[in-house]
Design goal:
Length: 170
């Protein structure tokens, strides 16, 4: 699929099938996150793959968004390695991690898988549930899997503001 079609077709999947995600496809998605551009190429993004029933259940207790996917990717950043802008100290770790999430969402869609960006979770609860995430700042939970039968984009998916409202030429 060409990029224009891919970016228009990708939607937030909220109804997952129970079909497992093949390791080869998961590896491609993780590689897309690894290849994401980051400020000063510091690569502070950290990706945690939750796929055991125990891990998925613990993650479910940290969010009000319950989609029951076969995999959840938790994307975080390491604040000790993220670039800080010299002029005001702005930490770019969250931006870098969000770029990684975007690339993984697009790669998943290209492989016939679906995702939805979940920001509605309790980071402290997530960090307490998963000590392996200590020292990171989680920014997103990314449910991942195949669309269930009857899954479709939300009714507002195609509503887009006109470019003239979003873009200013100077």
């Amino acid at each position: 699929m060409d990029f224009k079609a891919l970016s228009a077709a990708r939607y937030s999947l909220r109804k997952f099938s129970t079909q497992p995600v093949e390791q080869e496809k998961l590896n491609l998605i993780l590689e897309a996150g690894r290849n994401a551009p980051t400020a000063h190429n510091n690569q502070p993004q950290r990706i945690f793959v939750l796929q055991t029933p125990q891990a998925l259940e613990k993650a479910d207790g940290c969010t009000a968004a319950h989609f029951h996917p076969p995999v959840i990717l938790v994307v975080a950043y390491d604040g000790t390695s993220s670039w800080k802008r010299e002029t005001d100290g702005k930490d770019h770790g969250e931006i870098d991690a969000a770029i990684a999430v975007t690339q993984m969402m697009l790669q998943a869609a290209d492989l016939g898988l679906g995702t939805t960006y979940v920001g509605m979770f309790e980071p402290d609860k997530l960090l307490a549930a998963f000590p392996e995430m200590a020292g990171t700042f989680p920014i997103a939970m990314l449910p991942l899997g195949y669309p269930a039968e009857g899954a479709h984009p939300a009714r507002l998916h195609t509503d887009r503001k006109p470019l003239e409202e979003l873009v200013t030429y100077l």
